[in-house]
Structure formats: structure tokens, C-alpha cells
Amino acid sequence: MSDSQLILYSITSIIVLLIIFFLIKRRQPKLNLPPGKMGWPFLGETLGYLKPYPATTIGEFMQEHIERYGNIYKSNLFGEPTIVSADAGLNRFILQNEGKLFECSYPRSIGGILGKWSMLVLVGDMHRDMRVISLNFLSHARLRTHLFREVEKHTLLVLNSWKENSSFSAQDEAKRFTFNLMAKHIMSMDPGKLETEQLKKEYVTFMKGVISAPLDFPGTPYRRALKSRSTILKFIEGKMVERVQKMKEGNESFGEEDLLNWVLKHTNLTTEQILDLMLSLLFAGHETSSVAIALAIYFLPGCPRAIQELKEEHIEIARAKKKSGEIELTWDDYKKMEFTQCVINETLRLGNVVRFLHRKAIKDVHFQGYDIPCGWKVLPVIAAVHLDPSLFDEPHHFDPWRWQTNGSRGPSSSCASVTPNNNIFMAFGGGPRLCSGSELAKLEMAVFIHHLILNFQWEISDADQAFAHPYLEFPKGLPIRVQRHSLL
Ligand code: HEM
């Protein structure tokens, strides 16, 4: 073929390809995507989206985008075309259609750290099987019988160590409580022991990697977290080998109540699956509820009326116990903590421990006139709904009374499970992936608040506030100064 023939052939081919391309495009129905912009190539708008902001707000990025485009907008985040939803109806629709129209889809970096068998990243049948295990382990029955006692024991262990007029990080103390509780419950590890302290330290490094950029180079937080992951896994494996040996020797009573024992006895999971399950439950079970407790400690001094009403509620419970000669809290006492439940809901609504979830569309979806193409990332932003002024009066105001069932905002109203509207409060997610630990988390908060209110008054000793990175953290650790008191 001569040069001129080759050029002619190439030009004709390009023209034919262009015609085919335009014909295909014309045939495709025009998508009605939500408004928004895709930002820079690859990076999109990720940096703006992830810029830290005060936890009781939705952040500048979200605010500007909602004002400009509305509650549903398109963007390019985490390297993918994305639909961001601050719309209560769409968020509910997304979570309830898990596995049908949408699927959990966390960035690969999170899977790399939590492990491919972690419940937070699994989908389909394997997720269902793991979920059943976690629900068994955190069942209502176990909560009432076994976990309740442990929650109170670990609360007192932390609170009794606080010295009169001392100042310390409330965030660290809350973490000490929730970590010790989970480590005991998962692997029968005792608080204060060297191995427990070492494991807690590893988790600090691990956590920093979960939320860092996935840059696997020497010295990066991500690389350090991967190293921590393998140290933690080796540790859990050691515990597992020890336990299997004990079981072989017929020492059945050893660690009878913990998750490790349960999993070894009642499931056919592989070693790799057990390790990822334990690692991620220990992670999910202590990072979130410790932040929630720290947030309650932060919000309450700003609302003296709530402290007063909590005092009245808990003094009444404690006096009745004293009269009947009971010492430990019971499930019936817990059920009487109605105003405390309002404080818990309000803390979770305003603080938003988990701000948004990662999903992707697995089919083409139409919602309120918009198209969400199959394969696009979808981010239901639960924090934006909780702070939406059209859904909550004065959303930035800490107001536990908004959760009272009769809405009278008077001290005698009762605070049953969840009001203003179950459909818009999604602190624990929703649908088939609703947090398996939600009841435990609320119990931990209530019991901690009970003993805190009865035994201490506290002030924030160095101004601090929670920032969303998007994980929540008090930059100074929430320093508080405590004074003991006895209200009985
Ligand atoms: C205040 C504390 C907590 C908050 C705000 C919280 C929030 C959440 C949210 C929003 C999800 C849904 C994630 C998604 O759909 O992608 C979730 C899932 C989960 N949480 Fe929690 N959580 C808390 C405490 C706990 C505790 C104490 C445990 C106990 C181990 C726990 C275990 C889990 C597990 C296993 C899942 C995965 C459920 C599944 O995929 O089926 N969480 N949590």
C-alpha cells in the first residue's frame, strides 16, 4: 500500500468511527443527571469534599453545593463519577434497596486495611452470613444477660480511676472504656494488661490508615496502618491457636462468653475470615461509640437544663436501688432512662459520628426525575439530613427535648425510642446493613452517662471542638476537668 493510500484509508476509518460514535450517542436516551460539576480530571472535587470542618456543621463544600445545586447533585469523588445525596427520601431509598439497586462500595483502600472479609466491605450472601454472626453476638438476649453487666463494670473501671480536680482527655478515656469492653467481649482480654494496652496502641496507628490517602509508600500513614493490620492479625491468630488448644484439652469454660469461642464453635469460617471479622468488629465496636460518648461530654455542659433533667432522672433510679438494697444496674433501670435516650439521640443527630456512607448503583435508577446511571458511586450523606433546617428546628442547637414523644418540650414528656421521624434519623444507617451494634452503643452511652452524672461535674478545661475529617476527632482530645460529687 502506498503512503497516499494509507493516509486515505486512515482518514476514512476515522470518519466511519466518528459516525458510528455519534449514531450510538444519538440513539442513547439523554440522561437527566442531577446538576453539579465534575471538577478536575481524576481528582474531581475529592479534596474539597474531604476538607476538615466542625462536626456540628455540614462543612463549606456541602453547604455551597446544596445552595447551588439542591439536595441531590453530581460530582466526581474518590476517583469516580458520583451522586451525592443530602435528601432524606433518596437516602432512605438507597439504604433500603441494598442488593437490589445499590450495593455497599467502600474505597479499595478501606478494604485493603479492614480486609476483604470485613463485614463493612462484604456484599451479597457472604455479608449476610457474617451479619448473622454479628447479630447473634450482639443479640438483645446477650445484651440483657451478659453485656449489660460488662458495660457497667467497664464504665466504673474508667470513672473510678478519675482523680478529684484532675484534668485529662475525655476522648482518650471514652476510648479506654469502649476498647476495653470490646477486647473483653471479643477475646476475653483483661483491661490494663500489657497485651491489651499494646493492642490498643496498634489500633491508633491502624485507625489513622483507615482514613488516610491510600499511598502505600514507606513512611505514609497508610503503609504504617497496613503494618499495624498484620501485627493485629498475628495477635488475634495467636489467641485463636491458644483457644483451639484449650478446647482440645477440654477446657470448655475458657472464654466461654466471647466472640472467638462462639465463632470457633458455631461457624465454618476459615482462619482468614475469622481474623478479618474479629479485627473489623473490634474496630467498628470501639471507634464509633467512644466518639459518641465524647460528644455527649462535650454537648452537655453547654446545656445546664439537660444536665439538671439528667440528674433528676438518674437520682430517682439510684435512690430506688438504694432503697431495695440493689447495687448493680438492671435492664429495668435502663428502661427508665427516658430522658437519657433523648440526650443520646440528640448527641448522635448533632454530632454525626458517621457522616456519610459509600454505595454504588448496580442498576440504572430513576429517582424524582433524575437518572442515577449503573456503576456510579452514590453517597447518602446522613449528616446533611440531620442538620437540615427544613426537617429539624434550629438544627445546630443541642435540644434533647425535640425527641420527646408528645413534643411538649416539658420536663414530664417521655422520650421513647425515636421521634421526630424514624425515617429521617439515620445515625446507625438503615436497611439490610443497619448497624448491628446500635443497641450496644446506646446502652454504653446510657450507663456511662448514669455514673458520670451521679458522680462528677465537669468543665471543658481547654476549648476544643470535634472536627470531621470525615471521621470525627477532637484535635486536643477534649480536655476536661472533673470534680467528684455525690448526689445521693
Ligand atoms: C454510636 C456508635 C455507632 C454508630 C454511630 C454506628 C454507625 C454505624 C453505621 C452508620 C453503619 C452502617 C454502615 C453502612 O451502611 O455502610 C454501621 C454498621 C455497623 N456497625 Fe455500627 N455504629 C456504632 C456502634 C457500633 C458498635 C458498638 C458495634 C459493635 C460491634 C458496631 C458494629 C457495626 C457493624 C458490625 C456494622 C456492619 C453492619 C452490616 O454491614 O451489616 N457499631 N454502624
From TrEMBL:
Keywords: Brassinosteroid biosynthesis, Heme, Iron, Lipid biosynthesis, Lipid metabolism, Membrane, Metal-binding, Oxidoreductase, Steroid biosynthesis, Transmembrane, Transmembrane helix
Superkingdom field: Eukaryota
Cross-referenced Gene3D superfamilies: Cytochrome P450
Keyword Iron: yes
Bilayer-spanning residue ranges: 6-24
Cofactor: heme
Membrane topology of this protein: Single-pass membrane protein
Compartments it resides in: Membrane
Record keyword Manganese present: no
Catalytic activity of the protein: cholesterol + reduced [NADPH--hemoprotein reductase] + O2 = (22S)-22-hydroxycholesterol + oxidized [NADPH--hemoprotein reductase] + H2O + H(+)
Binding site for heme: 435
Pfam families in the record: p450
An example Gene Ontology biological process: brassinosteroid biosynthetic process
Main location: membrane
Annotated Gene Ontology cellular component terms: membrane
InterPro entries: Cyt_P450, Cyt_P450_E_grp-I, Cyt_P450_sf
Listed GO MF terms: heme binding; iron ion binding; monooxygenase activity; oxidoreductase activity, acting on paired donors, with incorporation or reduction of molecular oxygen
Entry's family note: Belongs to the cytochrome P450 family.
Name the UniProt record assigns to this protein: Cytochrome P450 family protein
Species of provenance: Quillaja saponaria
